[in-house]
TrEMBL record:
Domain of life: Eukaryota
UniProt keyword annotation of tRNA-binding present: no
Protein name as catalogued: Protein kinase domain-containing protein
Chain positions recorded as ATP binding sites: 65
Species whose genome carries this gene: Octopus bimaculoides
Protein kinase domain boundaries: 36-298
InterPro entries with a match to the protein in the record: CC_SR_Kinase, Kinase-like_dom_sf, Prot_kinase_dom, Protein_kinase_ATP_BS
One cellular-component annotation, GO: nucleus
Claim: Acyltransferase is one of the keywords in the record: no
Keywords: ATP-binding, Kinase, Nucleotide-binding, Transferase
GO molecular function: ATP binding; protein kinase activity
């Protein structure tokens, strides 16, 4: 996989962070009222922990992601990918970067704070999202992925936990650590050769661990997100072997209540899921086609 080259401005100021619990947060206790005060841990992933922080300069709340590394952060392709995407991307449905703070062997990414957490938390706590809300959320997510693909970058880690919800119920696609360049020539893509992420939402070609075109994998993942919002469950669960077998031999199984529904919008959502989660990558639609389909469905709601 090609590495994303990074050239951004990093804040080297040593008085930016203060922690309530130095031992658990592992930030240096900075004297004399630093800019950010760490309040609590709100999440963690494969590459770092996330905290809610208070900005004393503007009285605002933000999210802080702490990433640890050895050597230079530019040498870590996953940290480089996150830094590049957050610093370069400008889209209403992609998480907004506030600033970077660099310390020895640690990089802190300060981002906008999403008051309602992520889609996974929201669905788990509310159990059921209306079909109209599902399509509004999905329309925003599709727009973010459309923008990313137009910049020749595939996200590769689209999961419910990486889609955040603001107080205005706008979705924000976050966690760009697995993002990768996919090349300008769609007929000759740059193949990915690392096989990370949550396999419950990943495409079969990722689980097979053979080099793959990352753009169609994002399309599959979009379908899996739509499935999750509709059913409150991942489309596939179990071991890697079980998931791959069910993806390629069994296919998508939807609850009978949804399959037999007379709701036209729900039927349109089911049809969209099936069109995106096709095993053959050549038969999956490109993001431009997905966007048009979603716009058509949304127009029926207005």
């Amino acid at each position: 996989m090609d590495k994303i080259n990074v050239s951004v401005t990093i804040n080297m100021e040593n008085s930016s962070l203060e922690s309530n619990d130095e031992s658990s947060v592992h930030t240096d206790e900075i004297a004399h009222r630093p800019k950010y005060k760490i309040l609590e841990e709100i999440g963690r992933g494969g590459f770092g922990r996330i905290y809610k922080v208070y900005n004393r300069h503007n009285d605002g709340m933000y999210a802080l992601k702490r990433l640890c590394f050895e050597g230079e952060f530019q040498d870590n392709k996953y940290i480089s990918a996150e830094v590049y995407c957050l610093s370069k991307f400008k889209h209403p449905n992609i998480i907004i970067l506030e600033e970077f703070i660099l310390k020895p062997n640690r990089l802190y990414i300060i981002m906008e704070y999403a008051e309602y957490g992520n889609i996974e938390q929201y669905v788990t706590s509310n159990h059921k999202i209306s079909t109209s809300d599902i399509m509004q959320f999905f329309s925003q997510l599709t727009s973010a992925v459309h923008y990313s693909h137009s910049q020749n970058i595939a996200h590769r880690d689209i999961t419910p936990s990486n889609i955040l919800l603001t107080s205005k119920f706008d979705t924000k696609l976050a966690d760009w650590g697995l993002a990768t360049p996919c090349g300008v020539d769609r007929s000759n893509p740059i193949l990915s050769d690392d096989y990370l992420g949550d396999y419950r939402y990943q495409a079969p070609e990722v689980i097979r661990c053979t080099p793959f075109d990352p753009l169609p994998t994002d399309i599959w993942s979009l379908g899996s997100i739509l499935y999750f919002m509709l059913t409150c469950n991942p489309p596939f669960e179990g071991s890697e072997t079980t998931i791959l077998h069910n993806q390629t031999n069994v296919g998508i199984i939807l609850p009978e209540t949804i399959v037999n529904s007379n709701d036209k919008l729900e039927n349109a959502i089911v049809k969209t899921i099936k069109s995106l989660m096709v095993v053959d990558t050549n038969e999956r639609p490109i993001i431009e086609t997905v966007s048009k389909r979603v716009s058509s469905i949304i127009s029926r709601l207005e």
